[in-house]
From TrEMBL:
Name of this protein: UDP-2,3-diacylglucosamine diphosphatase
Pfam families in UniProt: Metallophos
Sequence ranges assigned to domain Calcineurin-like phosphoesterase in this UniProt record: 14-214
PANTHER family: BLL8164 PROTEIN, UDP-2,3-DIACYLGLUCOSAMINE HYDROLASE-RELATED
Cited SUPFAM superfamilies: Metallo-dependent phosphatases (SSF56300)
A GO molecular-function annotation: hydrolase activity
Keywords, alphabetical: Cell inner membrane, Cell membrane, Hydrolase, Manganese, Membrane, Metal-binding
EC number(s) on file: 3.6.1.54
Highest taxon of source: Bacteria
Root EC class: hydrolase
Organism taxonomic ancestry: Bacteria, Pseudomonadati, Pseudomonadota, Gammaproteobacteria, Lysobacterales
Length: 277
C-alpha cells in the first residue's frame, strides 16, 4: 500500500457535545450530522437536548428518511466502539426526561451533568431551556418571533439549496439575519448571562449548553461559556481535545473558536497538591 493511499484516522477527542439536531423536523440537516458522527472518535458524546424533535413530530408531519436512519446507526456504531453516550434532554424532547437518572443500554439519561475536562475544569452541561423564564419576552412579541423564525428557516433551506448547485459552502441566512436584530441580540445576551450566573452559583468553572441556536465559545471573568450550536442553522459541535483544549467545530471539521487548557496550578515551594485517586 502506497503512503498516498493511507487514510489517517481522525483525532480521538475526550468529549464531544452536540445539541438541537431536531431529527424529525423539516429543518434538520440530518445528512451533514450523520457525516459528522461517522467521522468521530471520542470517549464521551454528550447529546445536549433537542436531538429528536418529538414536539415537531407530534404537531406536524415528521420528516424521516435515509439520512435520519444514518444518524441512528452512527450513534449505535459509536456506542459499540466504546463511546459513552450521555443524553441531557431539552424542551423539544422533554418526554425523555422521565428516564433521567436511568442507565439505559449504552446510554445514560441525565437532567443535567458535570463534565470534568483534562485540565480540571468542571463544566455544567444543560440544554438551556431552564433559563427561558429569565430571557424570553413572552406574549405576542414572542409568538410573532416564533412565526418569523419558522419563515427564516425555510428561507435558509432554500438559500443553501441554490448555493449547493453552484458548489458553494453552507452559509446560515438565519444567523446572518439574527445578528442584525437588536431584539435577538439582547435575548442572547440575557441567555449567556443566565448560564454563566448558574454555573458560578453552583461553584463550577463554566457551562456547556445549546437551546438558542447560536454557537459560541469564550471565557468571561474566569468562567467558560460554551454553546455547541445546532444542526438547523450553525451545523456546529463543541469538542474537547486530549489536553483539555475546547474547540467549536463546523460540520466539516474547521475550528471556529478555541479555548486553550487552563494553566496548571502552582503552589509555594514545599507545598504539594493533594492526591486524588
Amino acid at each position: 500500500m502506497s503512503p498516498a493511499s493511507i487514510v489517517p484516522l481522525p483525532l480521538r477527542r475526550r468529549a464531544v457535545f452536540v445539541s438541537d439536531v431536531h431529527l424529525g423536523s423539516k429543518h434538520c440537516h440530518a445528512a451533514e450530522f450523520a457525516d459528522f458522527l461517522q467521522g468521530l472518535r471520542c470517549d464521551k458524546l454528550y447529546l445536549v437536548g433537542d436531538i429528536v424533535d418529538l414536539w415537531w413530530m407530534s404537531q406536524r408531519r415528521a420528516a424521516w428518511g435515509s439520512a435520519q436512519y444514518r444518524v441512528v446507526e452512527a450513534l449505535h456504531a459509536l456506542a459499540r466502539a466504546g463511546t459513552e453516550l450521555i443524553y441531557v434532554p431539552g424542551n423539544h424532547d422533554r418526554s425523555i426526561r422521565r428516564f433521567c437518572g436511568l442507565t439505559l443500554p449504552r446510554m445514560q439519561v441525565r437532567r443535567r451533568a458535570i463534565h470534568l475536562t483534562a485540565d480540571g475544569r468542571r463544566l455544567l452541561v444543560t440544554h438551556g431551556d431552564d433559563y427561558d423564564a429569565i430571557t424570553q419576552f413572552g406574549g405576542m412579541q414572542e409568538k410573532f418571533g416564533d412565526w418569523l423564525y419558522e419563515r427564516i428557516l425555510t428561507g435558509n433551506k432554500l438559500t443553501n439549496q441554490v448555493r449547493r448547485r453552484f458548489g458553494k459552502r453552507y452559509w446560515s441566512l438565519a444567523d446572518f439575519l439574527k445578528r442584525r436584530s437588536g431584539a435577538a441580540e439582547r435575548y442572547i445576551a440575557r441567555f449567556v448571562q443566565a448560564g454563566l450566573d448558574d454555573a458560578r452559583k453552583r461553584g463550577l468553572d463554566g457551562i456547556v449548553c445549546g437551546h438558542i441556536h447560536r454557537a459560541s465559545l469564550f471565557e468571561r471573568e474566569g468562567c467558560v461559556y460554551a454553546n455547541d450550536g445546532d444542526w438547523v442553522e450553525s451545523l456546529t459541535a463543541l469538542v474537547e481535545d486530549p489536553d483539555g483544549t475546547l474547540r467549536l467545530l463546523t460540520h466539516t471539521g474547521e475550528t471556529r473558536a478555541l479555548l486553550p487548557p487552563r494553566a496548571p496550578r502552582t503552589l509555594p515551594a514545599g507545598k504539594e497538591l493533594p492526591y486524588a485517586a
